[in-house]
Amino acid sequence: MSRTSYGGTCSWAGAAVPLGFVRKDLRVPIGMSRLLPRSAAPPPEEGRRPDKAVARTAVARTPVARTAVARAVTGLAAVLVVGALLLPDRVERLTPGAFTRIPVEAIGGAALLLVLRPGAGRVVAVLAGAGLGVVTLLNLLDMGFRSVLARPFDPVLDWILFDDAQAFLGDSMGRAGAAGVVAGAGALVVVLLASTTLSVVRLSRVVVRHRAVATPAILVSGTVWVVCAALGVQVSGAAVAARGTADVVSGRVQQVRAGVADRKAFAQEAAVDAFRDTPADRLLTGLRGKDVLFVFIESYGRSAIQDPALSSRIGTVLADGSRRLGASGFSSRSAFLASPTTGGGSWLAHSTFASGLWIDNQQRYRDLMSGDRLTLTSAFRRTGAWRTVGIMPGVTRAWPEGRFYGLDDVYDSRNLGYHGPKFSWTPVPDQFSLAAFERLEHGRPGRGPLMAEIILTSSHHPWAPVPTMLPWDGLGDGSVYEAVKKSGKDPEEVWEDPAQVRAEYGRAIEYSLNSLFSYVETYGGDDTVVVFLGDHQPVPTVTRDRLGRDVPVTIVARDPAVMERISGWGWQQDPRPGPGAPVWRMDAFRDRFLTAYGQR
């Protein structure tokens, strides 16, 4: 019978038994194994290597390893919490210097934990961690909104936009891709909230456990923060004494209050309508018998004609268009309109222009759509003197807003007759949209006067690939665009370089303008009146946060009487407004237009 060389002794029924004399097959009662010293663990059999998992477990159970792991986890928790407290709300501020500051929230939170009872401290830690996760999420949303819309995220009014964002992803990536992105974003949100909560709870325990060390550290840190705040000490342009999270919370509270108040203010504004009760026979008398086209050019902003990097090429297109239209007997007047949005949210600009109300958030838009406000387009329909239609190539599903705008028919991407490829987000090239309008409505024999709202979308980001002009009689069903798309640029490659983004944006605007000028030159007549304008400035990657939110607006007509009606506006006689051209708020256009062309 073999024996083992266990060291030490164990107590068995009150007697000390030398472990060296315990046989290998001796069974120890349940629970007694815990009485064996660790040094008594049997060595591996001769010639057999220890199991790696057992070895790792043994190491992990040593006090040194446990301490090292605990300190590493605590360190990661501290990095996460401090990083979240110092996280800026703008991408351009995301620099190493932003994280070399002292967050006052950490000092105050640690001090609070030292004076609270243990139970209350745990509750405060959980709430603080969850709150920090929410603030971090809002800062990340701010980064995204500022990068695209040049404004922060509104926690009251902007949640509705995520439906539109998901629809945009579906149009661009397909349903499966969009679902994957949404699922990934949801998982990241859960991980973020859980991580910040667990990290704050862990740090709170460390602070309370090491009260003797934490108390003087808090006093020293607080003193340094106060001194830095008083002296205005900065690192890389950022104040060392940081209180960003406190400011974010305060700002969000004010945003919530403002959002609630805004709805009441909008209801009061919408109740005032100078043209609500105007008789139909007094509306738009100066345009009777004309075909009136309101044409929006996506992302056509002041930057397109005044940014030196873009203005030379686009200015050439506008000058050439002016010459060509002039040769056909057309004249033009132009100015600027201040858009309620920038970088995106085209529908906010469309509704502002048409309704005469300032629609700068989604809640206002929805409230407007649920009312019966007289719009420019519905005014034409009220007269009974025009057929009203919409050419909406960017619409890919049911669009109930058409009823609000008073459109008799809406042609969207599904019924324009286009069977060619999408150009990134853009479902239908601009030239084809205009050709479809000519085929479906404007070119029909025996028709009456038309009012059309036409949206040109080829200048919608990402601006690659960009279509090219083709012969009007060679468009067919759009299949010809397959070769055009293949010869274009890859949007992913373009967006690696901001200079390329600006260049492709300029090419897209050129294409949209050339499509419109060519259409008017080819199909316009004595009774044609065109109002074309941008909806908003492009994203900050193009504008570089310059030149504000203004968009060009131009009226083109062959009949001198049409231009005479607006002679008092002071607009410039050129389709390219100069720096000194008048600037109106976009919501002012409806009333001035209806006044100018109404009964005098």
From TrEMBL:
Keyword Mitochondrion: no
Domain of life where this protein originates: Bacteria
Sorted UniProt keywords: Membrane, Transmembrane, Transmembrane helix
Membrane-spanning segments: 68-86, 98-116, 123-141, 178-201, 213-233
Gene3D superfamilies registered for this protein in UniProt: Alkaline Phosphatase, subunit A
Protein name in the entry: Sulfatase
UniProt organism field: Streptomyces gobitricini
Lineage, highest ranks first: Bacteria, Bacillati, Actinomycetota, Actinomycetes, Kitasatosporales
